[in-house]
Amino acid sequence: MRADIILSGVGGQGILSIAAVIGEAALKEGLYMKQAEVHGMSQRGGDVQSNLRLSDQPIASDLIPKGHADLIISLEPMESLRYLPYLKEDGWLVTNSQPFVNIPNYPDMEKVNEELDKLPHKVILDVEAIAKEVATARAANIVMLGAAAPFIGIEYNKIEDGIRRIFGRKGEEVVEMNLKALKAGYDVAQRIK
Protein backbone atom coordinates (compact mmCIF):
# COMPACT_ATOMS: atom_id res chain seq x y z
CA MET A 1 0.00 0.00 0.00
CA ARG A 2 1.24 3.45 -0.87
CA ALA A 3 -0.65 6.76 -0.89
CA ASP A 4 0.79 10.19 -1.61
CA ILE A 5 -1.70 12.85 -0.54
CA ILE A 6 -1.57 16.62 -0.85
CA LEU A 7 -3.84 18.58 1.47
CA SER A 8 -4.43 22.22 0.58
CA GLY A 9 -6.49 25.18 1.65
CA VAL A 10 -6.11 28.39 3.60
CA GLY A 11 -5.35 28.97 7.24
CA GLY A 12 -8.24 28.28 9.56
CA GLN A 13 -10.01 25.74 7.36
CA GLY A 14 -8.78 22.69 9.27
CA ILE A 15 -6.28 21.17 6.84
CA LEU A 16 -3.94 20.15 9.65
CA SER A 17 -6.80 18.45 11.53
CA ILE A 18 -7.47 16.33 8.43
CA ALA A 19 -3.78 15.39 8.32
CA ALA A 20 -3.84 14.50 12.03
CA VAL A 21 -6.86 12.20 11.62
CA ILE A 22 -5.36 10.47 8.57
CA GLY A 23 -2.07 10.13 10.47
CA GLU A 24 -3.82 8.49 13.43
CA ALA A 25 -5.65 6.11 11.08
CA ALA A 26 -2.39 5.25 9.28
CA LEU A 27 -0.66 4.44 12.55
CA LYS A 28 -3.60 2.23 13.56
CA GLU A 29 -3.23 0.49 10.18
CA GLY A 30 0.47 -0.11 10.93
CA LEU A 31 1.65 2.08 8.06
CA TYR A 32 4.77 4.22 7.77
CA MET A 33 4.03 7.92 7.46
CA LYS A 34 5.93 11.10 6.59
CA GLN A 35 4.44 14.57 6.57
CA ALA A 36 5.64 18.01 5.52
CA GLU A 37 3.63 21.18 6.10
CA VAL A 38 3.78 24.66 4.62
CA HIS A 39 1.92 27.46 6.38
CA GLY A 40 1.06 30.77 4.73
CA MET A 41 2.11 34.19 5.93
CA SER A 42 -0.90 34.58 8.21
CA GLN A 43 -2.54 32.14 10.56
CA ARG A 44 -5.95 32.71 8.98
CA GLY A 45 -6.29 33.23 5.26
CA GLY A 46 -2.79 32.24 4.13
CA ASP A 47 -1.97 29.21 2.00
CA VAL A 48 -1.69 25.97 3.99
CA GLN A 49 -0.42 22.83 2.32
CA SER A 50 0.65 19.46 3.62
CA ASN A 51 2.34 16.51 1.91
CA LEU A 52 1.25 13.27 3.54
CA ARG A 53 2.95 10.06 2.45
CA LEU A 54 1.69 6.67 3.65
CA SER A 55 3.17 3.27 2.87
CA ASP A 56 3.56 -0.25 4.13
CA GLN A 57 7.29 0.16 3.33
CA PRO A 58 9.75 2.72 4.78
CA ILE A 59 9.49 6.18 3.16
CA ALA A 60 12.65 8.11 2.27
CA SER A 61 11.28 11.62 1.69
CA ASP A 62 8.38 13.59 3.10
CA LEU A 63 7.90 15.58 -0.13
CA ILE A 64 5.77 14.41 -3.04
CA PRO A 65 7.35 14.95 -6.47
CA LYS A 66 5.35 16.51 -9.31
CA GLY A 67 3.11 14.00 -11.04
CA HIS A 68 3.14 11.53 -8.12
CA ALA A 69 0.21 12.50 -5.85
CA ASP A 70 -2.52 9.89 -5.72
CA LEU A 71 -4.95 12.32 -4.12
CA ILE A 72 -5.38 16.04 -3.59
CA ILE A 73 -7.77 17.03 -0.81
CA SER A 74 -8.52 20.74 -0.99
CA LEU A 75 -10.85 22.90 1.07
CA GLU A 76 -10.46 25.73 -1.44
CA PRO A 77 -10.98 25.34 -5.21
CA MET A 78 -8.27 27.77 -6.38
CA GLU A 79 -5.77 26.15 -4.01
CA SER A 80 -6.61 22.78 -5.56
CA LEU A 81 -5.60 24.17 -8.96
CA ARG A 82 -2.26 25.31 -7.52
CA TYR A 83 -1.32 21.69 -6.78
CA LEU A 84 -2.67 19.96 -9.91
CA PRO A 85 0.87 19.59 -11.37
CA TYR A 86 1.55 17.17 -8.51
CA LEU A 87 -1.43 14.92 -9.30
CA LYS A 88 -0.87 11.61 -11.10
CA GLU A 89 -2.68 11.18 -14.40
CA ASP A 90 -5.08 8.72 -12.75
CA GLY A 91 -5.12 10.53 -9.38
CA TRP A 92 -8.21 11.93 -7.67
CA LEU A 93 -9.04 15.49 -6.69
CA VAL A 94 -11.52 16.01 -3.86
CA THR A 95 -12.28 19.70 -3.47
CA ASN A 96 -14.72 22.19 -2.07
CA SER A 97 -16.90 23.94 -4.64
CA GLN A 98 -17.08 27.15 -2.62
CA PRO A 99 -14.20 29.64 -2.72
CA PHE A 100 -12.56 31.33 0.24
CA VAL A 101 -11.93 34.69 -1.40
CA ASN A 102 -8.96 36.05 0.51
CA ILE A 103 -7.20 38.04 -2.21
CA PRO A 104 -8.42 40.99 -4.30
CA ASN A 105 -7.57 39.32 -7.64
CA TYR A 106 -9.24 35.97 -6.93
CA PRO A 107 -9.95 34.38 -10.32
CA ASP A 108 -13.47 34.17 -11.68
CA MET A 109 -15.09 30.96 -10.40
CA GLU A 110 -16.30 30.15 -13.90
CA LYS A 111 -12.64 29.88 -15.01
CA VAL A 112 -11.70 27.86 -11.92
CA ASN A 113 -14.57 25.46 -12.61
CA GLU A 114 -13.56 25.14 -16.29
CA GLU A 115 -10.14 23.89 -15.15
CA LEU A 116 -11.64 21.54 -12.57
CA ASP A 117 -14.06 20.14 -15.16
CA LYS A 118 -11.09 18.97 -17.28
CA LEU A 119 -10.11 16.42 -14.64
CA PRO A 120 -11.31 12.85 -15.21
CA HIS A 121 -11.30 11.84 -11.52
CA LYS A 122 -12.83 14.38 -9.17
CA VAL A 123 -15.31 14.88 -6.36
CA ILE A 124 -16.46 18.49 -6.01
CA LEU A 125 -18.86 19.30 -3.19
CA ASP A 126 -20.07 22.19 -1.06
CA VAL A 127 -18.63 21.02 2.25
CA GLU A 128 -19.95 23.96 4.27
CA ALA A 129 -23.55 23.33 3.19
CA ILE A 130 -23.25 19.62 3.97
CA ALA A 131 -21.62 20.33 7.33
CA LYS A 132 -24.40 22.77 8.31
CA GLU A 133 -27.00 20.20 7.30
CA VAL A 134 -25.63 17.36 9.45
CA ALA A 135 -23.65 19.04 12.22
CA THR A 136 -22.09 22.51 12.17
CA ALA A 137 -20.15 24.60 9.63
CA ARG A 138 -17.04 24.03 11.80
CA ALA A 139 -17.05 20.38 10.66
CA ALA A 140 -16.64 21.25 6.96
CA ASN A 141 -13.08 19.89 6.97
CA ILE A 142 -14.30 16.53 8.29
CA VAL A 143 -17.00 16.41 5.58
CA MET A 144 -14.10 16.85 3.13
CA LEU A 145 -12.17 14.05 4.82
CA GLY A 146 -15.22 11.79 4.47
CA ALA A 147 -15.48 12.60 0.76
CA ALA A 148 -11.80 11.73 0.33
CA ALA A 149 -11.95 8.56 2.46
CA PRO A 150 -12.70 6.15 -0.44
CA PHE A 151 -9.45 7.23 -2.14
CA ILE A 152 -7.03 7.18 0.83
CA GLY A 153 -6.49 3.43 1.03
CA ILE A 154 -7.27 3.11 4.75
CA GLU A 155 -10.31 1.32 6.10
CA TYR A 156 -13.17 3.70 6.90
CA ASN A 157 -13.50 2.44 10.48
CA LYS A 158 -9.83 3.30 11.13
CA ILE A 159 -10.53 6.87 9.98
CA GLU A 160 -13.46 6.93 12.42
CA ASP A 161 -11.07 5.75 15.14
CA GLY A 162 -8.68 8.55 14.17
CA ILE A 163 -11.49 11.07 14.74
CA ARG A 164 -12.23 9.54 18.14
CA ARG A 165 -8.57 9.87 19.16
CA ILE A 166 -8.00 13.38 17.79
CA PHE A 167 -11.28 14.89 19.06
CA GLY A 168 -11.87 12.67 22.12
CA ARG A 169 -10.47 15.18 24.59
CA LYS A 170 -13.12 17.67 23.44
CA GLY A 171 -15.96 15.43 24.57
CA GLU A 172 -18.34 12.86 23.14
CA GLU A 173 -20.63 15.49 21.57
CA VAL A 174 -17.76 16.84 19.44
CA VAL A 175 -16.70 13.32 18.48
CA GLU A 176 -20.26 12.39 17.40
CA MET A 177 -20.64 15.64 15.43
CA ASN A 178 -17.42 14.89 13.53
CA LEU A 179 -18.42 11.27 12.89
CA LYS A 180 -21.71 12.51 11.38
CA ALA A 181 -19.79 14.98 9.20
CA LEU A 182 -17.38 12.23 8.08
CA LYS A 183 -20.25 9.94 7.10
CA ALA A 184 -22.06 12.72 5.20
CA GLY A 185 -18.97 13.44 3.09
CA TYR A 186 -18.34 9.72 2.55
CA ASP A 187 -21.92 9.19 1.33
CA VAL A 188 -21.58 12.03 -1.21
CA ALA A 189 -18.33 10.58 -2.58
CA GLN A 190 -19.91 7.13 -2.90
CA ARG A 191 -22.68 8.62 -5.07
CA ILE A 192 -20.23 10.62 -7.26
CA LYS A 193 -17.39 8.17 -7.83
Find the CATH superfamily.
Answer: Pyruvate-ferredoxin oxidoreductase, PFOR, domain III
Q: What series of H and E elements makes up the topology?
A: EHEEEHEHEHHHH
User: What is the straight-line distance between the termini?
Assistant: 21 Å
**Structural class category:** alpha/beta
Strand segment count: 6
State the name of the first-level CATH class.
Answer: Alpha Beta
In one word, what is the shape?
A: globular
Number of helices: 7
Number of domains: 1
**What would CATH call the architecture?**
3-Layer(aba) Sandwich
| Rounded mean pLDDT score | 92
Percent of sequence in beta strands = 15-25%
Task: Kindly identify the CATH topology.
Answer: Pyruvate-ferredoxin Oxidoreductase, domain 3
In terms of quaternary structure, the protein is single chain
Q: How is the biggest beta sheet arranged? A: 6 strands, mixed
Helix fraction by DSSP (H/I, runs of at least 4): 40-55%
Which stretches of 5+ consecutive residues score pLDDT under 50?
none
Query: Whole-number radius of gyration?
Result: 15 Å
| Order of strands across the main sheet | 2-3-1-4-5-6
Keywords: Oxidoreductase, Pyruvate
Organism: Parabacteroides goldsteinii dnLKV18
Protein name: Indolepyruvate ferredoxin oxidoreductase, beta subunit
GO molecular function, one term: oxidoreductase activity, acting on the aldehyde or oxo group of donors
